[in-house]
Amino acid sequence: MIPARALLGAFIVFIAAAPFILPEFQVALLNYIGLATMVSLGLVLLTGVAGVMSFGQQVFAGIAAYTTAVITTKYGGSPWLALAVGLALVAVVALFLGAITLRLSGHYLPISTIAWGIAIYFMFGNLEVFGKYTGVPDVPRLASPHVTYYVIWAVTLGLLLASANLLDSRTGRAIRALRFRGVMAESFGVDVLRLKTLVFLYAALFAGLSGWLYAHYLRFVSPSAFNVNAGIDYLFMAVIGGASHVWGAVIGASILTLLKEYLKGMVPSGLGASGNYEIVVFGVLMMLLLHRASSGLAPVLARWTVRPQRRRIAFEAPALPRRAQPGTGSSLLEVKRAAKRFGGLVAVRELSFDMRAGEILGLIGPNGAGKSTMFNLITGVLPADGGEIVFQGSRIDGLAPTEIARRGIARTFQHVNLVGTMTVLENVALGAHLRGRRGTLRAMLHAERAEEAQLLAEAARQLERVGLTAHLHDAAGSLPLGQQRLVEIARALSADPTLLLFDEPAAGLRYAEKQALAALLRRLRGEGMSILLVEHDMEFVMGLVDRLVVMDFGEKLAEGLPAAVQANPAVVEAYLGGVE
What we know:
Blueprint: H1 4-21, H2 24-49, H3 58-74, H4 79-101, H5 108-126, E1 133-134, H6 145-167, H7 170-178, H8 182-187, H9 192-218, E2 220-221, H10 228-241, H11 248-271, H12 277-292, H13 297-305, E3 331-342, E4 345-356, E5 360-364, H14 371-378, E6 386-391, E7 394-395, H15 401-406, E8 409-411, H16 424-430, H17 440-444, H18 449-465, H19 481-494, E9 499-503, H20 511-526, E10 530-534, H21 538-542, E11 547-552, E12 555-560, H22 562-567, H23 569-576
Parallel strand pairs: 5-10, 5-11, 8-9, 9-10
Antiparallel strand pairs: 1-2, 3-4, 3-6, 6-7, 11-12
Helix pairs in contact: 2-6, 2-9, 2-10, 2-11, 3-4, 3-9, 4-9, 6-9, 10-11, 11-12, 16-18, 16-19, 18-19
């Protein structure tokens, strides 16, 4: 196994030496690989990591290429001015298209990217200002082929390292949660739409840089380079290399570029016939490759070559600021005639209850009673159809989940909601998202390391609190269900909440684990934490909570001390099944 730094060093040495050891034709192919890597890298971030599939990234390269072609050939402007104008146009168009596209989901999203990809391609081919441009000038001081090569690869390597830094940060954890865990990410303060828009913008700017360099390298621009087939090729590169791995962009761009170039000559001559037979062979090879490595080549090669590195936790890092907790016994949460309907189904019907700071309040009821729906109303995941929800004196019904999380409410979920491919430590650090302030540009430059050390140290402390220190660096998806629930609790604690909402935290735990969890919850209550608990294990609940609210068919059936509720005939009949 080879350290990742050694592999990176060897790759940089090869790129630096290539113009002196390879024929000119192969150096030209490396230029094409570098240009393609930039666009593919944007797709790794956008599609592979954030889960936004796009078939239209080539149009952003086209916008930058045509901008520099028009400014430099028609108006004699500086290529550097054209770069600034081109990237500004790319940003404006990306933000406009993102505002339309990123609110869509399912198959509508990729179809919409195909639609605007086709529309802009035909605009390139039909508007008089576009068309074909020849004689695009060299960039001053970059006229030497070797200099152009080094500029292309310096930009490519810079974007690769910046992207790797970004994903290894507070914002990067949020981006990695977007693909499958958007609701969970929002519950911990991640502005999902804003973050998707930001990733979409970065992917577009990466493509714009590629388009500008492409125009000045080839000194020729035409619409054919920016058609939908090009968009499919870029997406293919990301998938082949490993759509969720930054260095997969290089691998995919290299394989696709080299295969298409060499098959173009080898297949027709081998068959003794002219035609596009190389496309057939290429398709078969790609199907075989993806059949054997469905996640792409980057993770396969990493398992063979890269020595796994464990993140160093700076436990001596200064502790993050903590929010002031309300005085024990003060009014914390008031639910007033809350209602939620799904068509003709009434999930919550004019439910009212209140909660005091420093208590554990149990919310119980049979399956389908509306308990989890009530949790979703409190956390803003679902909008209420009526009533009021007041937290610390302010109404929160109608607020976005991110704003509710900012006010100090954290939760776990009925079904485990972790990012399985991220480590336990990273999942828990995601809970502290709102406790960090450094943005994406600082992350790309690794200028947020001090804050990152604080966030990771906080996550490690919370994991120690729930007894999972031994699993800091394990993939969260590899843990048994009971331990995954403890990871969720640690993640909620990392948010430094005022109110904790636990949705069936004891489900899947063994008896000893339940006892340890009960002790943890009592300790949290002793520290002034307020807990709203949904749980089906009555033995666990009755010995833990201060008060109970019983729901049945969306309504409040009873409320009071555990012993009184347990003896209530209506509760016994509806839920406890005669248990006394």
